[in-house]
Amino acid sequence: MSGAAVDVEVEALVVGAGPAGLGLATRLKARGVASVLVVDREADAGGNPRHCGHPPFGLREFGRVLTGPAYARRLAERAVRAGVALRLATNVVAIERAGEALVVTTAGDDGVRRIAARRLALATGVRETPRAARLVSGERPLGVLTTGALQAFVYLHGKAPFRYPLVVGTELVALSSLLTCRRIGAAPVAMVEERAGPQCFPPFMALPRLVGVPLHYGARVVDIAGSPRVRRATLAHADGSSSEIACDGVLFTGRFTPEASLARAAGLTMDLARGRPVLDAFGRSSDPRIFAACVLDRSVETAGWCWSRGRAIADHLAADLAGRLPPP
Amino acid sequence: MPLADVAIIGAGAVGCAMARRFALEGAKVLVLERGADLLSGASKANSAILHTGFDAPPGSLEQACVQAGYAEYMAIRGRLNLPVLETGAMVVAWTEAEQAALDGVEAQARANSVDDVRRLGPAEIRAREPHLGEGAREALLVPREHVIDPWSPFLAYLLQAKALGAEILFGAEVAAGRREEEHWRLETSRGRRRARVVINCAGLYGDVVDRRLLGESAFEIRPRKGQFVVFDKAAASLLRTIVLPVPTERTKGVVLCRTAFGNVLVGPTAEEQQDRDRAATDEAALKALIARAVEMLPALEGMPVTATYAGLRPATEEKGYRIAAMPDRSWITVGGVRSTGMTAALGIARHVYGLYERLGHSHAAVAEPECPPMPNLAEHLPRDWSAAGHGGVVCHCELVTKREIEQALAGPLPAGDFGGLRRRTRCAMGRCQGFHCLARLAVLTEGRFAAPLATPTEAP
Ligand SMILES: Cc1cc2nc3c(=O)[nH]c(=O)nc-3n(C[C@H](O)[C@H](O)[C@H](O)COP(=O)(O)OP(=O)(O)OC[C@H]3O[C@@H](n4cnc5c(N)ncnc54)[C@H](O)[C@@H]3O)c2cc1C
Ligand SMILES: Cc1cc2nc3c(=O)[nH]c(=O)nc-3n(C[C@H](O)[C@H](O)[C@H](O)COP(=O)(O)OP(=O)(O)OC[C@H]3O[C@@H](n4cnc5c(N)ncnc54)[C@H](O)[C@@H]3O)c2cc1C
After folding, report:
1. Which residues, in sequence order, are bridge partners of residue A233?
2. Domain boundaries, chain B
3. Which Pfam families does its entry note (chain A) (predicted)?
4. In this predicted model, what pLDDT tens digit does every residue of B364-412 receive, in sequence order?
5. Which domains does chain A have, with CATH numbers?
């Protein structure tokens, strides 16, 4: 694999064309960085907002309210207009740090390629913690998924993964899932939260009531049963009792985690508690040529926050290329 | 109605190897599997260790079949493009008592002709596995104990059988049957079939099938569950060798090893249960496994979990295999293949063909059919994503391409359900568990599975 010749050399390579990566790359161009390439494994740029078919996106960036897909398109257009090169449908599979330049290996329909870069920015984003990593007990039937997958079913493909799911979690994304369910005529049977209260701004919790979804705090999913599809879930309640809920799906929402597999595989020093590389005040990792953006240090951030975080990192990265950043 | 020479009940590890062997020997083979795809029972979840048989009871049928199975796998794997991740294994003694037991383990290995074993002291253990936790007192190295892809071989065997003319029916549960003059008449959920000899390879239902068709069974299946935790691929660089505990009578114990797919796995537990189908994980057991793994390999602390799963061993009231031919009834039961069947399957198949010949049957053996090489899923060998023209990557975590998905849905034995597709390609088996690819997979598999990923929607 490392036999393939380096086919492009760039000043800055950005991995990930989500809000953070696009904000970062666009800003690098504004800062005068000669060649900026963004690589993303999806066929369309935009990251998670591509499949968030609901508003509000874009207030900070465009001064107006957009749906996720419209917002994603605009971010990409703006980047291209600024002179950013986009390489889509291309997975970054490895980062080599041995030599003078960083070399990134990519895989796409056109085969394996290698790109050399003076600086690398990881903007590989976030995803939700799936059922397996939560160690939730039970069988492994069809119908168990995360909100990101639900959105892709509904907004990208017009499909429904279930009709009457149990929704786990009360972060904002859980509320958005109630709206997404309505799109496909799915009727969540309940929403459960392990903790004693909601994980979002409490007044938002009017939504489940409005759409008629019963809400249980202090309740954990302790069993998922069914074959081939989910048939029921068992809840353990704070008072020690348990109850069964008939459902044909279980939606695990939120508990966002950084998509940090590249950083791990590249051997960057990791912050185990946060699940992302250790970064300094400028967003530099243990290899000072590699920066990382949007790192989820509080709970999940809005796309707009990630976008501006990307821009801040871009300023540091551009300064570094110009030799103006203090050594690590 | 056509008459098969043999009806093989069950397309688990054992049934698939059986179908291949009998087809190669020239028999007209019929495979009846109640699942929507092969490997729907015990064989869908195991530790994937290709055993040398070093710890099997010396002189037992199990020991002979494991060693014959191992040898045949090594002999044919090149032609079929089946991987081996060469790891070797270490039986590690962590306590004084375990250390005292190592002599016995070594003697047993030598009695089983596994002569290349050797003892490692603490310094050698450390040199081989620098990340291993403190307190490993001594180990027995078993150099040829390796890791394989636990699914592709059996698909390859069944494809070979099919290429030689075997009839393979999925969704065909054998519900009843009767011996008529010269043959068995089998009632299945896909209609009536006839065969001269029946080979019961029904795994977790071995006793049930015997009782249904013979009226009695020589054994009773006592499903024994094993749970596993799979760690992120980042863990794979922490470990080379399979780490085995000093075995006890009841189980091989909790193993820590790499997988062919580039992860690290810890498990299995050993839990008796009644249910033959429900392979559920449970949080407390998974947490205990993680804690055990961190004890053995402290650098696993904080390592993300990619997947959890459980498998059911077709154990019986006795430890050994329950393989018996009933000449007067033209019936062979291949039961109780508890915890070594993935390795032993090819050896069991040869042994059973011998029993079949002793029933007075013979055929003219045929040459191994030309089959296209199996798609490689092992991480240490080139995968499809590294070759151009694959139509793009669909599952990003496991780098599964569109071409791989399409191929798994086509050909002589297309995936019959989502589990089968996952086993054939690894799609949705990685760290995001479908966050990115599940919806796309629903589209690519539309109209393919009786249990679809997407349910019908109502217009808004
Ligand atoms: C279901 C859901 C609903 C949400 N709803 C809202 C909302 O209503 N409003 C809001 O403001 N925010 C919302 N968010 C949050 C918001 O989408 C994220 O915070 C934001 O997208 C993060 O931006 P990012 O650029 O850091 O990462 P992402 O958007 O995750 O983008 C990362 C990009 O990196 C690419 N990538 C990753 N690894 C590789 C690799 N190895 N090779 C190539 N490419 C790679 C990915 O394909 C992806 O395009 C939601 C998130 C989710 C998951
Ligand atoms: C936790 C665990 C770890 C293991 N680790 C290893 C290991 O590392 N190495 C190793 O070599 N082995 C290992 N094994 C053992 C191995 O997986 C088993 O020995 C093997 O899978 C048994 O296969 P089988 O074909 O006998 O049974 P099964 O796989 O159960 O096959 C029987 C088939 O028959 C079908 N069937 C049942 N009833 C009927 C009916 N009435 N009509 C039609 N079809 C029917 C079922 O659907 C099933 O597909 C492990 C097993 C477990 C559970």
Report:
1. A224, A245
2. 3-46+151-220+317-358, 89-143+222-313, 384-444
3. Pyr_redox_2
4. 999 999 888 999 999 999 999 999 999 999 999 999 999 999 999 999 9
5. 8-127+257-321 (3.50.50.60), 132-252 (3.50.50.60)
Work out the widest C-alpha separation in chain A, in whole angstroms.
63
B 83-122 residues with CB < 8 A to A: none
Q: Which fold has domain B89-143+222-313?
A: D-Amino Acid Oxidase; Chain A, domain 2 (3.30.9)
Query: Is residue B136 in contact with ligand 2, taking CB distance under 6 Å?
Result: no
Query: Whole-angstrom Cα distance, residue A162 to residue B454?
Result: 7
B232 in A contact zone (CB under 8 Å): yes
pLDDT for res A300:
67
In this prediction the ipTM stands at 0.95
Report the separation in Å between the CA atom of B44 and the middle of ligand 2, taken as the mean of its atom positions.
7
Q: Is the CB of B236 under 6 A from ligand 2?
A: no
Which of A131, A134, A142 to probe the B interface (max B CBs under 10 A)? A142
Instruction: Write out chain A in H/E/C secondary structure.
Output: CCCCCEEEEEEEEEECCCHHHHHHHHHHHHCCCCCEEEECCCCCCCCHHHHCCCCCECHHHHCCCECHHHHHHHHHHHHHHCCCEEECCEEEEEEECCCCCEEEEEEECCEEEEEEEEEEEECCCEEECCCHHHCCCECCCECEEEHHHHHHHHHHHCCECCCCEEEECCCHHHHHHHHHHHHCCCCCCEEEECCCCCCCCHHHHHHHHHCCCCEEECEEEEEEECCCECCEEEEEECCCCEEEEECCEEEECCCEEECCHHHHHCCCCEECCCCEECCCCCCECCCCCEEECCCCCCCCCCHHHHHHHHHHHHHHHHHHHCCCCCCC
* B89-143+222-313 shares the fold of B3-46+151-220+317-358: no
C-beta atoms of A161 and B453 within 8 A: yes
Interface residue A136 vs chain B (CB under 8 A): yes
Inter-chain CB proximity A139 and B279 less than 8 Å: yes
Report the CATH number of the B3-46+151-220+317-358 domain: 3.50.50.60
Beta A232-237 vs A242-246: how paired, if at all?
Answer: antiparallel
* Residue B92, phi then psi, degrees to nearest 5: -100, 130
pLDDT for B77-108, tens place per residue? 999 999 999 999 999 999 999 999 999 999 99
Q: What is the pLDDT of residue A54?
A: 81
Question: Which of B422, B438, B443 to mutate: most A Cβ within 10 Å?
Answer: B438
Query: Does residue B412 belong to the interface with chain A, where contact is any CB pair within 8 Å?
Result: no
**Ligand 2 atom nearest to B343, measured from its CA:** 11
A109 touches chain B (CB under 8 A): yes
pLDDT in tens, A56-88: 888 888 888 899 999 999 999 999 999 999 999
Closest residue to A132, CB basis, from B233, B305, B458:
B305
- Identify the residues whose C-beta falls under 6 Å from ligand 1: A 15-21, 39-42, 47-49, 52, 57, 91-92, 123-126, 147-148, 151, 173, 176, 259, 262, 294, 300-304, 306
Average pLDDT of the residues in A171-191: 95
Q: What is the pTM of this model?
A: 0.96
CA distance A33 to chain B (A): 30
Question: Ligand 1: which residue has its CA nearest to atom 29?
Answer: A47
* Average of per-residue pLDDT across B335-347: 97
Distance, in Å, from the CA atom of A25 to the CA atom of A68, rounded to the nearest integer, reads 19
Mean pLDDT of the region A214-222: 97
